[in-house]
Amino acid sequence: MAKEIIKGGKKLWNLKYEKVEKDHPEFRGKAAVYSYATRLKNPKSISFISGAIPVDKDGFLVGKNNMYEQLIQTLENLKTQVELTDATLEDVMKITIFTTDVGEFLKFRNLLCEKYPELFGKVPGDQTATAVTLIGVTRLANPDALVEIEAYVATN
To answer: Who contacts 68 (Cβ-Cβ below 8 Å, separation ≥6)?
Structure first.
């Protein structure tokens, strides 16, 4: 597969790559509610996606005081950011989720698995899911935001 990157009429680079492979090393012990590790088999490069936040295309916060609405908007924004690296959510190797309300976030685990199985697995604790770290914080940069998600993406 090849992709030519052009900006402002100038050819910046021409990328040639094969599909990235990933696997999930076994962990000795009972699985918790997340995947313990993701290993890249043949990475060409890794893209680091800055924290996606729950804003619309005009930069306005979506779902004030509503974790579900903010999660969906944030994940859709993350998906867009990942696609800008010419990758898909299946190429995401690791996500870090920052939330001001861990308890409220955890209420939506099953829903996240249904809507975004390529990130969260088919059920909580699915060891084929992307590696995830969940961090509770007192505040995010936007004081009305409840969630922010950053990602590491394997790109070719």
So the answer is: 108, 111
Domain hosting 88: range is: 18-155
Contacts for 42 with CB less than 8 Å, ≥ 6 apart: 18, 20, 21
The total number of structural domains in the chain stands at 1
| Nearest by Cα to 114 from 122, 126, 106, 103 | 122
Tell me, yes or no, whether 31 lies in a domain.
yes
In the three-class reduction of DSSP (H, G, I as helix; E, B as strand; rest coil), residue 56 is classed as: coil
Query: Could you report the average pLDDT of every consecutive run of 10 residues in the chain (156 residues)?
Result: 45 44 51 56 77 92 97 94 89 93 94 89 79 94 96 85
pTM for this entry: 0.76
71 occurs within a structural domain: yes
Structure tokens at 118: 């390529």
Burial call 101-125: b when 16+ CB within 10 Å, e when fewer: eeebbeebbeebbeebbebbbeebe
- In whole angstroms, what is the distance from residue 85 CA to residue 66 CA? 29
Question: Which CATH number do you get for residue 119?
Answer: 3.30.1330.40
